[in-house]
Amino acid sequence: MDAAINVGNSGGALVNSKGMLVGINTASAQSDRTGIQGIFFAIPYKQAKNIMDKLLADGEVKRGYLGLSGTAINQMGAPVRSSVESIAGIQITSVDPLGPAWASGLKANDVLLSVNGKQLISLSELLSFVENVEPGSIITFKLFRNGNLLNKDVEVGRLETSR
Hints:
This protein has 163 residues and is an alpha+beta fold. It has helices spanning 45-58, 100-103, 123-131, and strands spanning 13-15, 21-29, 39-44, 64-65, 68-73, 89-95, 111-115, 118-119, 138-145, 148-155, 157-158. The longest helix has 14 residues, at 45-58. The two termini are 30 Å apart. This is PDZ domain-containing protein.
């Protein structure tokens, strides 16, 4: 955004030129050394509403967790470098040995193709989907491993946050 946030504005509404709420102001970063007047941040409205709904319903925000990282790859198995290039899947690069993905048998180099029957289109989409799944729920991945198509059920864990 290009609107300045002053001290005390965090939590305020970010509206577009039509007066529609598009986000919640959160922070600014400023530097006297570089002459930058400031970079300003806001949480998108949909994300803020999702958090609010969870807080009202449960008194807390519970986020799902798998314990894996990966990279989007194309049909040739090469990393996708552009947002306009279509992806074939998400290749797992590492798995937390204490996480739900490991416990369910997911491994580094597996290529995740879909979750609950929905084709994956980006790593960020997968992470967003998982964080909004109720911990303890079972999700099913279709994946490619060593030339074979497999289905793996994973019980989503709970993302623990430091307090």
